[in-house]
Design a protein that fits this description.
With 638 residues, the chain is an alpha+beta fold. 35% of the residues lie in helices and 21% in strands. Strand 18 and strand 19 form a beta hairpin. Helix 2 runs parallel beside helix 7 and helix 16 crosses helix 18. The longest helix is centred in the last third of the chain and has 19 residues. It is globular and about 85 Å long.
Length: 638
């Protein structure tokens, strides 16, 4: 039976619209906090009762709302933040849709009290959720706004029944407030649940308060095991902190990215950081990071998602590449480029830029550096690698010889003996540590110091200016050899090997379209493919080192990467896996006795090798024990 078309009552339309904005109590808190921050507040109190279902109260000291605009502020599609299409294309505020207060008030008992900075009294409005508002009434209040939301979803029981337990709902609010606290260091916050203060942070004014606030929100372990980053290109600034690869997590619970001060959940950005850590983390582990991206507002579209969690970039691939390269550079720095006891937040330094309150802004201290005048580093004695200027064909032939059942250390004893007789120096094939390196008596001691002894054939004990350095010699040498192999392969890594029998692969038409768009990239990476049918591709050649790999799975993964990010690291990752295995077999083994010269040679190589803080499997290669830590072990001075 046909139903007649009727105009929905305004209050019912508001309740339907609220479904896009108000999903749960945390959604209410998010919208109200964004309004408070846009008002210029420097302090915000958040009071929650029973997970937000009973009561949510947000109090700010912002500019407030004039009496004559108060009723307009709670109406749908009313905002002071955009006036025309040009403003919409260049949104610089957190909230701008003009829907938040109207939507929230339609599904709750709602009260707003606000005093404008130019008025002598505050004014109050009240609604019972039916779209009917009381007249503006005078009320006591300081400059700013107080919004009270009680009995959430009291008039929409269908939605109320989907709320979780109060503890679960408050957990969502707590995590949201934490992210907002991270995004705005120049604003003080207090979060109260059931009359109990859960979080309280004060506005950052100097380095001390910044470090204290970051410790409160991210934890002391993150603060102690993070690197500050600060990169800038033509239209984008990147700052924040990235955790050391050894500080990793089983889940993505410590990953925060902010774009122009806005909390975002962007798959492209998350994937970029993941790729930056690809060569230094255990498989299945996740990095921790706090990253701020600042860019012109007209280059990012925030009007994509009703809750404004998603953004779209004018050039997403460029942002992806800049973020991936920047983070990768930060975590790949050699030991020699770091300060003090290694790559920790305290050693790099903390800073606060009072002119930009939307993000934590690290600054760079003058770093003391230990640099070699001449590396004089030759091939490892444990694995006879080809020379740096060897051709790619020589390198590939050598690689296959060592990956197809050959013994890495078959003639090691003979080689060691020849090297020792030839130049009277260490097994690692490094020139004697004088001249090019700082001599042991020199006051400018190297970062990893000088070796003193070897412990059980596994660890190197070294003394530096801070105390004791313990080095896992196999893990450290494995990374050194691995990085050398990667550089050798990158000289000419794209040699293709034609397949005797071409391989037919079946894809969806959308996947074939991606391949067609990036066909030249596939060829550059050593893959030759041809169209075999509407949903088939024929593989006729692949990179030499990947001849025994799962080619169908690899091509599938490459197309998936290109569809998401416009780039792929699948080939590099597969080749690196092979080189990592070679390096593992080719590095010094446990229980191998090293001379002092050999140990010092390894320390010097570590200091100039990228990613030498971690082995190929993500484990730490060395740790620093300061004199204070050693004193405490023996209770000295207590």
């Amino acid at each position: 039976m046909r139903q007649s078309i009727e105009q929905l009552p305004s209050y019912l339309a508001d309740q339907i619209a609220a479904g896009e904005v108000v999903e749960r109590p945390a959604s209410v808190v998010k919208e109200l906090l964004e309004n408070a921050l846009d008002s210029g507040a420097t302090h915000i109190d958040i009071m929650i009762e029973e997970g937000g279902e009973k009561s949510i109260v947000i109090v700010d000291n912002g500019s407030g709302i004039p009496k004559e605009e108060l009723l307009l502020a709670v109406s749908r599609h009313a905002t002071s933040k955009i006036k025309n299409g040009t403003d919409l294309a260049c949104v610089a505020t957190l909230g701008f849709r003009g829907e938040a207060l109207a939507s929230i008030s339609s599904v709750s008992r709602f009260e707003i009290v606000s005093r404008h900075q130019d008025e002598s009294a505050a004014w109050k409005l009240y609604s019972e959720g039916e779209g009917n508002w009381s007249d503006a009434q005078p009320s006591a209040g300081t400059i700013g706004t107080r919004v009270s939301v009680s009995d959430l979803f009291f008039n929409t029981p269908a939605r109320k029944k989907f709320l979780r337990a109060a503890k679960t709902e408050f957990s969502q609010i707590d995590q949201l407030v934490k992210r907002v606290m991270l995004s705005r260091p120049n604003v003080g916050f207090k979060l109260v649940h059931n009359q109990k203060v859960v979080r309280q942070v004060f506005a950052v004014t100097d380095e001390t308060t910044l470090q204290k606030r970051l410790t409160q929100l991210m934890g002391s372990s993150f603060v102690e095991q993070s690197l500050s980053i600060a990169f800038e290109t033509q239209d984008i600034k990147l700052s924040g902190w990235v955790g050391l690869p050894t500080f990793n997590r089983s889940q993505t619970d410590m990953q925060y990215i902010f774009v122009n001060g806005r909390i975002v959940r962007d798959r492209l950005l998350s994937y970029a950081v993941k790729q930056a850590y690809a060569d230094v983390l255990y498989h299945g582990r996740h990095p921790a990071y706090l990253i701020f991206i600042e860019m012109p507002h007209d280059l990012v579209d925030v009007n994509v998602h009703p809750a404004k969690y998603e953004v779209r970039f004018a050039n997403g691939r460029w942002v992806y590449d800049f973020l991936r390269r920047s983070v990768r550079e930060a975590v790949a720095k050699p030991v020699v480029s770091e300060t003090g006891s290694g790559a920790s937040l305290n050693s790099v330094g903390l800073g606060y830029n009072s002119s930009n309150g939307s993000a934590f802004t690290p600054y760079n201290l003058n770093r003391s550096r230990f640099a070699t005048q001449d590396s004089a580093i030759q091939e490892s004695m444990s694995f006879q690698a080809p020379s740096e200027n060897a051709s790619s064909k020589e390198f590939v032939a050598h690689a296959f010889q060592n990956t197809q059942g050959g013994s890495y250390n078959a003639n090691l004893a003979d080689v060691i003996q020849q090297r020792r007789q030839g130049n009277g120096i260490a097994d690692l094939g490094v020139a004697e540590p004088i001249g090019g390196y700082v001599a042991e008596g020199d006051t400018d001691m190297p970062m990893l110091g000088f070796a003193k002894a070897q412990l059980h054939g596994v660890f190197i004990l070294s003394e530096n200016q801070h105390g004791l350095v313990l080095v896992d010699m196999h893990a450290a040498h494995e990374r050194v050899v691995y990085e050398r192999f990667k550089k050798q392969w990158q000289n000419d890594r794209l040699i293709s090997q034609p397949l005797l029998v071409p391989m037919a692969l079946t894809f969806e038409q959308s996947q074939i379209a991606v391949w067609q768009e990036y066909e030249s990239l596939f060829e550059k990476l050593g893959f030759v493919l041809e169209v075999l049918g509407p949903e088939q591709l024929k593989v006729t050649a692949v990179p030499v080192l990947l001849m025994k790999s799962d080619i169908p799975g690899l091509v599938n993964d490459m197309i998936a990467d290109l569809a998401v990010a416009g780039q792929t690291q699948q080939v590099e990752e597969r080749i690196n896996h092979i080189l990592s295995t070679m390096a593992c077999h080719g590095s010094v083994r446990a229980n191998r006795q090293l001379t002092i010269a050999e140990m010092n040679a390894l320390l010097r190589e570590m200091e100039v090798t990228e990613r030498s803080d971690q082995c190929n499997h993500g484990r730490p290669t060395w740790v620093q024990l300061s004199m204070d830590q050693l004193d405490s072990l023996f209770m000295r001075g207590q």
